[in-house]
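Recall that a protein's primary structure is simply its ordered list of amino acids. Everything else, from secondary elements to tertiary packing, is in principle encoded there. The following example makes that idea concrete.
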Amino acid sequence: MHSVQVHTKKISNKRALILLFTANGISGFAQGITMLSVPWYFAQQDASSQFNFMYGLITFLTVFWGLFAGTLVDRFDRKSVFLINNAAEGFILLSVALYGFVAGGLSVALIILAFASTIMGFYLHYPNLYAFAQEVSPVGAYTKVTSYIEIVGQTTNVLAGAMAALLLEGANIDKAVSLLGTTFTFSLTIDKWAMHEIFLMDGITYLISIALISFITYKPQKKRVIETGNIVKRMKTGLLYLKENPLIFTFGFFSYSIFVVLLVKLHALMPLYITHHLHEGGSIFGTMEVLYALGALSAGIFVGSLFSRFTTVGSVIFLLCTATVALWLSALTQSVPIFLGVGLLIGFANAGARVLRLSYLFRQVPNGIIGRVNSLFSITNVMLRVVFIMLFSATFFSVGSNITVAYGILGAFTAFSALMLIVRYRKLVAS
């Protein structure tokens, strides 16, 4: 197992990556607001249990979609996959938004449709993004490129969290400031946005992304072997690869645990934790997202240097333990400052583990199969999330402060994952 290294080798295809990261950031900004707004909308309707059940069902369906998506990434031109995926998501979001403006609002079914289409898009977009980044980057730049992916993504999350805090609740600011004997009055009113207005903004960003991606030209750093068999055969190839490389599966599976926890926490637990346990409003929800993203952004910037003297496995174990402590703090306390501090810790731990995990997989897995390998890891991730989401959709967790029990359970899961990597540490480091 390689130790974490900071490489200075120049990244080729720089213009292609800049265009892709810009497109990803613009659409990711609006996606982030959408993904925050929908669970918050249901929490305010006292329908979080209903939402968690539907979210669990959608997540289960991504098992089948994710398997298929991986075969698309490895079979077709990755630029074309980006364009088609953005066009499909943009069409759905804009259609739902248009209906909302005409009808004066949206039904639960249409809100869930927009939410589901965004989730489905993720399961094609991210395996394709990672495969493309590996395809156009030299080996020596893998850690740098994966860090850039995280930096861009988390910068947009900071902006999305801040904007969501305003759009979900609205704002009415009227402040007087005295300077050199003169009083200046600053007034700002932001009305609360309806769901179809948020979806309209999201849909427009997809159109901008399509325009940027269409200008991408690049030269692959290595020749990609494209398997042209039928879909079932290509799926089996991915499964066979992981079966023949059990250590890659072990590391890839357990290092993904913080991401499992993060998505369950963000979409299924946080609205209930804030409203029922902390008794706070949407501003805390948006602030938490900003702090999480700041923690993740700092990981993207500093993870290479902070862990440069440690093995990748040891670094990921440390980050899993950090996430465990953060989750158990949430379970055992009822403090807004501690809750927000936990956001920073989990943001750092998740992003740091993702950068280290991706750079490792880039080194170990051939580009012609990495789409399927990443999709298979995503599917195992999905199955775990389905279990947790369905469990936490039980009425028990919607009563009083019982949601803290869910945080304790997730902390036990990350602790178990760290233990599994510790048990296999010697073999993983030697591989």
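The chain has 15 helices and two strands. The two ends are 5 Å apart (CA to CA).
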